[in-house]
Design a protein that fits this description.
8-stranded parallel beta sheet; Arginase, Chain A
């Protein structure tokens, strides 16, 4: 059944009985820090869906980002399964639900696409790939997210890549868009470098193009992409909790996604850290919607 609340009007199941190529699901809450309020991030998935509605009747039209219609003239092959019910501060329960849904989608088999939520949702999303080893992680973000714990919480939004580095099925991590200052201490930088994470700053992308990042990803590997909205410059993506100048452009991010699709295989995609209360005229939600269109277009074009 198609609903106005779904992304681009996608159905919640394919009526021809075929397996969807990708399954979208939204997540409101992950692991919230004590005393913090993550309710603003919980609005993100539905804000992205709302921003997509003007294009819902245009999916058969020519998309210049993709050099063709979204599904290449073929029938819709993606579904929007709605939101996972999550509860703020039910951190362990939220992680269990997110990981379980990710595993369910992979078992279909389909490619899971998670719409967050703060980036703590990335940890259980990546954990859901434990039976899909090995996978690489491409993090597109202003920050490295390598804290071991914050306020006693090891699974919060400052720790996703630290936890990913501890997962046996994660073969490597490439972190793109880094700039300015965040929660990372020198010890966190050293820990990431000891692990072997590849750092690619926003400045390097501006100067060398997306190949500065893609060269670190081996040909043909399976990659889970985690896209933090604050990786983009706030002139394009103001609706984030940590605005930082000097970020990536929309074109750089879609070129990175398209280039990845040609050189490797996107096994999963999550888009996090949209913060609708800080958005301006829904610009960020619209940009996030277009980024998701490019991810889907790249995924369905993978052989």
């Amino acid at each position: 059944m198609t609903t106005l609340s779904s992304f681009l009007g996608f159905p919640d199941r394919l009526t021809n009985g075929s397996t969807p190529r990708a399954v979208i699901f939204g997540v409101g809450h992950g692991s919230t820090y004590p005393g913090k309020d993550s309710s603003g991030h919980a609005l993100a998935a539905d804000a992205i869906r709302a921003a997509s509605q003007d294009d819902a009747t245009l999916i058969e039209h020519w998309d210049f980002d993709l050099a063709g219609p979204l599904f290449g003239g073929n029938p819709v092959c993606c579904v929007d399964a709605g939101n996972i019910p999550t509860i703020m501060y039910d951190n362990e329960g939220n992680r269990t639900r997110i990981e379980a849904r990710t595993r369910e989608v992979l078992a279909l088999p389909s490619i899971p696409i998670l719409l967050g939520g703060d980036c703590s949702t990335t940890i259980p999303f990546l954990a859901g790939f434990a039976n899909e080893m090995p996978v690489w992680v491409l993090q597109i973000d202003a920050h490295i997210d390598w804290r071991d714990e914050v306020h006693g919480e090891h699974y919060g939004y400052s720790s996703p890549m630290r936890r990913a580095s501890e997962m046996a099925h994660v073969a490597g991590i490439v972190q793109v868009g880094l700039r300015s200052v965040g929660s990372a201490r020198p010890d966190d930088i050293n820990a990431a470098q000891r692990y072997g994470s590849r750092f690619v700053t926003a400045r390097e992308i501006h100067g060398q193009g997306v190949d500065a990042a893609l060269r670190h990803i081996p040909e043909g590997v399976r990659v889970v992409v985690t896209l933090d909205c604050d990786s983009l410059d706030p002139t394009t993506m103001p609706g984030v909790a940590a605005r930082t100048p000097g970020g990536l452009t929309y074109t750089q991010v879609i070129d990175l996604i398209a280039g990845l699709g040609k050189q490797a295989r996107i096994a999963g995609f999550n888009l996090v850290e949209l913060y609708p209360p800080a958005d301006i005229d829904s610009l960020s939600a619209l940009t996030a919607s277009r980024l998701l269109v490019n991810a889907i277009g790249t995924i369905v074009r993978q052989t």
